[in-house]
From TrEMBL:
Highest taxon, organism lineage: Eukaryota
EC number(s) given by UniProt: 2.5.1.18
Protein name: glutathione transferase
Lineage summary: Eukaryota, Viridiplantae, Streptophyta, Embryophyta, Tracheophyta
A GO term, aspect molecular function: glutathione transferase activity
Gene source species: Chenopodium quinoa
Amino acid sequence: MWPHHHPLLPKEPYERALVRFWAKFAEEKGIAFWMFAQTTGEEQAKAKKDSMEMLKTLEEHGNLGNNTFFGGEEIGMVDLAFGSLIYWLQVIEQIVEVKIFEANSFPRLYKWFNSFKDVPIIKNNVPDQNQLYLHFKKYRNRQMEATSA
């Protein structure tokens, strides 16, 4: 029943391949967000640059077009992959006190993300960002202490 009502992948083979490409892109390039959170100095500057490049690529070449979501008017796999990354990125930005994901730099992605997080199934099921902040801040502090010891 579920795959017929809300499929994560399109039926057309070419469209399915595009979705898989972008999901893999999120998996491979999203690591830069975590490196941005867990490093300082030159390493963090490189991770910030890599994160910005990933977002720029998605902004310029992602399959949004005039659609609300990457797959059209319904949430799909690409939206879930990037939506979770950007949700965490906002927490990371608060912790390291450096902004990456801004409306003026990534207007299409910013609009998409606001639409994504306002969908009731997403809105009602994402973890509270304040709780994530508190948890991840403690984690990052322990990581920083361990690397400086």
